[in-house]
Records
---
Amino acid sequence: MTTELIYLTATLILALVQVVAPAAVKDLEFGLAWGVGARDHTPVSKNPVVGRLERAKANLYETLPLFIGAVLIAHVTGAESALTLWGAALYFWARVAYIPLYAFGVPYVRSLVWMVSLAGLILILVALFI
């Protein structure tokens, strides 16, 4: 497996972590009975971290299909290069850094880190045309 595919796999694992994270924080706030119940009536969370984690997850899901497609196209066409390697690495590590920055409400730096992830995605796409 290429390094780019390893980063893709790691990003998919990160996406799963981002599914579980807000639910885990809600379980802590609302109790285990709520967490394993039918959740017919979900109370509004008073913990801002829950909303931030949910928004960070939604943000990942906006670019994840593009990242998946770009990495797979690069792999299938044999276009993997230093650009795709750096692009995949930048995308993944920026997405990792993005989660705590968003969860703790860090402004500006969070946006810069998001731009780094976008730059990584763009590097992969550029590599497809070189």
---
Amino acid sequence: MTGDRVPSTAARARAARRIAAGGCLAAPVAALLWVPAYARRGPELAGIPFFYWYQLAWVPGCAAAMFIAHLLLRRPDRRHP
């Protein structure tokens, strides 16, 4: 029966990396969509209300999350052993 196959270790590792990459991409989205968590004025940073600097802090955070997801999903170079 073809339905009784057990996935190989490599297939499980690939699936785990895909799930981790999805988590990296979902974290900034969830953090920015949950507006009540940051819809306030204080604490201020250099006179800038929390609402604004929280969102601006996620710009490099999103870039870092996308880079980590890229590293998790990229394929190894098969030309060099």
---
Amino acid sequence: MQKLYGAPGWGSAITEIMFSLAGEAYQLIDVEGFDRPGPARDKLLALNPLCQVPTLVREDGTVLTESAAIALVLLDENPQLAPAAGTPQRAQFYRLLVWMVANVYATLTYGDYPERWVSQAPQELQASTDRHRENLYLWLEAQAGDGPYWFGEQVSLLDAWFPVLVSWKPRHAWFEQHAPKIASIAHNISQRPELERVLRANQLLP
């Protein structure tokens, strides 16, 4: 069985949601605390020099990292979890999948641990990345439709991001006020019964 290295509430939760939407089996290897020195970090570093979650070890032993890459591999095996190939919606799926990890994740990489990157006034880096992330979400909100999911009635792997994103800064209350469409998609996907276990395990349910 493929092994997913992750920690509750981190980006690995997105991959867990994707696997659950696809009905794919996996074994979760909990490496909570990987962001500081210790056995969990050592275990993850042996597979991923960047020491990031998710890190996936496939059944054939292949190590796969990066949420977007995992999504695309999963899509190869579950084509129903994205709009049809060759459609404008499929192009948007690709765009937003890469947009999430290229833009939003960068603000978290630098803003959540500013002291790693600057020696003076790390709080200024944190504040500026927080503001930039909010602006990114406002742009994303402007792209959203009327739901219930990102692509209307069709559930896609892109929807797996929203329950997790709204739990990260700037948190649920901000999304409810400033990005209600994103908040609604997060709520709707979270109501799917096949996701209850994984959402609860990642502390993403009330």
---
Amino acid sequence: MTAAQAAQLTRHFQSQVLKIAELLARRLRITALRADVSDIDAWWDQISPAVQKEILTGQSALARMARGYLQQHALLNGVALSPVVVEPSAQQIAEALRVTGPVAFKTQMAISGSEAAATRTMASQLQGAATRLVLQGSRETTMRTFREREEMAGWRRIGGGGKSCAFCSMLIGRGAVYSKESSEFRSHDRCSCAAEPLYRREPEPPEVRRLQEQWREATAGTSGAAAIRAWRLFHDGQNSRP
């Protein structure tokens, strides 16, 4: 029953942090769609302080939420844990938003010459970056706790509900990670995956074993980049079925 409760807690926590991240990201997308394209740099200089503050606040909030989640999750596993809460980097947030904001707008303008297309591209990229940046608060709190606290034996990547992309499915299929040297959580914009703590070595769940078997079948006779290409073809074919 404890394992089921821990899994339920993880799903609930993941649902809550995704809602917050996606809400902030949608708000930023709407702001970007209303950009003053006559002077994109001046527009960005005007709005960016408030945007950066909102993303910074969201990331901090999710880091604090992760602390509570990690403590509860550990207790359900019979472990007392003191999580290590990350401090957001304002500089990192500012740079990521600038690249996906005015820089993305100018890049698309150079390609298409269309202000409308450039605005849509900027809005989309800002939305994706904002989701990733806000979720970094919870993800990095989990990862840093794993690196610095011996109570956590490992972690497992889990999807965010719905269909995971080929990249995320590949990483989920690798199963549990128990090495402290393997504590980087790889993500992309709009990625909804999370890291679930593990406190002992345990068998992989059925969904992971299924992905592992699919990987072996899809990549048989290949390795490296060729294996990844084969996996993407297999994954895309599976998910294109009705």
